[in-house]
Specification:
single chain, 276 residues, alpha+beta, Immunoglobulin-like, five-stranded mixed beta sheet, 4 helices, binds copper (II) ion
Length: 276
């Protein structure tokens, strides 16, 4: 009876913890960090959905293990912790028990490893991209290049296309509803539901291009070109920040990705090309 009561208690705690963590996922409806949030931002790419699903699965397994170990610990203390238990047990070995406590953790690790590796290798999957963006980290702002739309085809590598810098919007320039320390003067505009290839590099020190709701964190390393692809599933603004300590104003080089419909995207490209 006591045993059942203990078990019920721990199951209750486990389920409560699960509800707390999952409800937090539902509550956060924003694509920027919010005060006291301990959960993920809303996913906007299949990749981020996969990351959140894997996180939840591992959490469930972790809770199961923690509850089981805690139960064994408490029941052992309760059974053998009494001062009036004088009898000592001469237990040598138990083959069955040893097989179980070796194979069970191994199986559990396999259960975690399979979805984990699937997700890891899907990150490297390069789908024929519709748009290629080159993103260069600088102290302390980002430069974006859309080389697909070269104005002058003869200009060769690095010439032509749409190139602009994206700086933090200073406090006195902020308009109502804009986010302090996250809003930029030139957003990175991308089409929704399209495969996008992102290339990162740096002009000075190591930076990192990170946007949580897109599930992207790609280092920008001087002299190297890193690559990833993603697909944004919905329209909106997704805020991120440089995530590699890069100097005095590291905190002042935010990222704002705006995903728009195909027509708006073409209009935006045309406007930018006219400006160039
Ligand atoms: Cu930085």
């Amino acid at each position: 009876m006591e045993l059942k009561k203990n078990l019920n208690f721990f199951i209750h705690i486990g389920v409560s913890l699960l509800i707390i963590t999952s409800s937090n996922n539902l509550l956060s409806f924003c694509d920027f960090p919010t005060n006291w949030s301990i959960s993920f931002q809303n996913p906007a790419t299949p990749l981020m959905e996969g990351i959140i699903a894997l996180h939840s699965d591992i959490w469930a397994i972790m809770l199961f293990v923690a509850v089981f170990v805690l139960y064994i610990l408490c029941s052992t203390l309760q059974k053998f912790g009494n001062a009036d238990v004088q009898k000592s047990y001469k237990v040598h070995h138990n083959s069955m028990l040893e097989i179980v406590w070796t194979t069970l953790p191994a199986l559990l690790l396999c259960v975690i490893a399979i979805p984990s590796f699937t997700l890891l290798y899907s990150l490297d999957e390069i789908v024929d991209p519709s748009v290629t963006i080159k993103c260069i980290g600088r102290q302390w702002y980002w430069s974006y290049e859309y080389s697909d739309y070269a104005v002058d085809a003869d200009s060769g590598l690095g010439g032509g296309g749409i190139i602009f810098d994206s700086y933090l919007l200073q406090d006195d320039l902020l308009e109502e509803g804009q986010l302090r320390l996250l809003e930029v003067d030139n957003r990175l505009v991308l089409p929704v539901n399209s495969h996008i290839r992102l290339l990162t590099s740096s002009a000075d020190v190591i930076h990192s291009f990170a946007v949580p709701s897109l599930g992207i964190k790609l280092d920008a390393i001087p002299g190297r070109l890193n690559q990833t692809t993603f697909l944004i599933k919905r329209e909106g603004c997704f805020y991120g920040q440089c995530s590699e300590l890069c100097g005095a104003s590291h905190a002042l080089m935010p990222i704002c990705v705006e995903s728009v419909g195909a027509e708006d995207y073409i209009n935006w490209i045309n406007t930018k090309l006219d400006e160039a």
